[in-house]
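Morning. Coffee machine broken again, so started the prediction first thing and wrote up yesterday's gels while waiting. Chain of 204 residues, entered below exactly as on the submission form.
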Amino acid sequence: MSIFSYNGAAIVAMAGKECVAIGSDLRFGVQLQTMTCDTPKVYKIHDKLYLGLSGLQTDATTLHQKLQFRHNLYKLREERDMKPSTFGHMLSNALYERRFGPYFAAPVVAGLEPDGTPYLCGMDTIGAIESAKDFMITGTSPESLYGMCESMWRPDMEPDELFETVAQCLMSGCDRDALAGWGAVVHVITKDKVVSRTLKTRMD
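Came back before lunch.
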């Protein structure tokens, strides 16, 4: 078994019309043994920026703490929040620094730029960055998540429709993966608020 599928994860980020949504499953397991079902893999950096981390949960937690620390330093120095695009490049740089002993975590960044444009990017363990205009996924079931997202995404969705689409993609993708699921959480980021909803899914 790959170290990336040791704990299991499913993360979907999707862009809409001046809004963006990111969601993850809630399962934390050790290989096929489920430990808890209250562990989201999406972390809030600030109101307009969320970070999803799949892979080894210990490395994901460490990486999140380091990135939160760097963002806090930036905010002290610049007196403003970091833009999602800036954060993506900072994250890529942080991962490339550790390329000879990388963090076993695959990140997805989702946020709104100051002008309201959705920003999505993902990268591998050594920080090779890839941006997207539609959706970004990571986790242990990429095939089923990609298939659902490609069939359900369409441009310029409003926040409520975007939530519904992300929720359905996440739940359908997790149903085909024994290492992810057991509940989900979805955050919808708009220019004036963030709405977070917890989903009930199959618990088997």
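Residues 57-78 form the longest helix (22 residues). Going to sketch it on the whiteboard this afternoon.
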